[in-house]
Amino acid sequence: MASILPASNRSMRPDKNTYERYTQTQAQAQTRKLKRKPRSVWRWRHSAERCLLSRACGTRLLKHTVAPRGRIRSLHPARHPLRSFSHLSLLMGKRSVYVKNPYLEGMDEDILYHLDLGTKTHNLPAMFGDVKFVCVGGSPNRMKAFAQFMHKELRLEGDGEDIEDICAGTDRYCMFKTGPVLSVSHGMGIPSISIMLHELIKLLHHARCCDVTIIRIGTSGGIGIAPGSVVITDTAVDSFFKPRFEQVILDNVVTRSTELDKELANDLFNCSREIPNVPTLIGHTMCTYDFYEGQGRLDGALCSFSREKKLDYLKRAYRAGVRNIEMESTVFAAMCGLCGLRAAVVCVTLLDRLESDQINLSHDVLLEYQQRPQLLISNFIKKQLGLCDQMS
Ligand SMILES: O=P(O)(O)O[C@@H]1C[C@H](O)[C@@H](CO)O1
Ligand SMILES: O=c1cc[nH]c(=O)[nH]1
């Protein structure tokens, strides 16, 4: 059984995945080598940076060191040339977006099929290099509305109504860019968001983005809290209330940590205090593979348990710290954590699952509820950009 690791330990004991084990062994060997030859090696500028590097990039980045005045030295220039600017930016004190795939660098072209983008067909650094915030959510219309809202909030030129879908060549996902904010839809459920995240993370990597914060703004079912409450997730848990995501890779089950950035969650919570009339709390979010049986609903096409069993399960979830249920947070937390993205999940609750299963809100109330996470995130982004006088 693979272990569940807190984020701080990931670099020390990565998942039981062959490649990650391989890179870890290589990284340790390389570190030993660096220690044996102190004079040939310049010191890292910050130990935190070194830690981040070894955690996120494994062996390849350890082959590069920082010389005085930020000059980059490769220990083995012939075999390991400095391949990407994102490595350089991290060495200069920025946090890059990482891919952890040794095959990617050998590819002549990378086609991001479900986004209808590619490294040969699009100038990704020019299109996306300035992205600092990525907001993702299930529905294409909601993510378009969020992009238009951000356009106004950031006071960009024009009214934003004619904002174009960057992924218009495909109907799998949609993507809108407003200044440094990217708004992307991910569909419903773990497989759908996972495909989008693979391609989005590669996109951010190819575009050499750094210091990126990614936030899922979604809807959920609450447990024991008023409908319309906004839950900021501290930890995403699975159906057994465990902070883990189990990824099947070939015929192995690889368990990954689902911890999210606690500091970011706290910053968001502090930001929420400035928004009146929106009850907001921090809690665990349970992520399921299904909306009906998987979330203990009695109103699906299939149901093989009693009302009592449902309530017992949901009350146990509440006692374990779960305050809402949705369908993407575990894989989102796991993938973003492994790829060096500061990540948060902020979902509004549409109902209290201890009271009912059906969502019977009027269209207007549903719309207003869905805007609550958007309002919080827009205020957070504006604060981060130094535009905090413009609170909505
Ligand atoms: O971000 P959204 O509101 O699409 O996420 C939740 C979880 C499921 O994908 C979906 C179920 O209605 O809503
Ligand atoms: O109950 C709910 C509501 C929204 N999304 C979910 O996954 N569950």
UniProtKB/TrEMBL annotation:
One GO cellular component, as annotated: cytosol
GO molecular function, one term: uridine phosphorylase activity
Annotated Pfam families: PNP_UDP_1
E.C. number(s) listed in UniProt: 2.4.2.3
Keyword Transferase: yes
Residues of the Nucleoside phosphorylase domain: 132-381
Family statement drawn from the similarity comment of this UniProt entry: Belongs to the PNP/UDP phosphorylase family.
Protein name: Uridine phosphorylase
Name of the gene encoding the protein in the UniProt record: Upp2
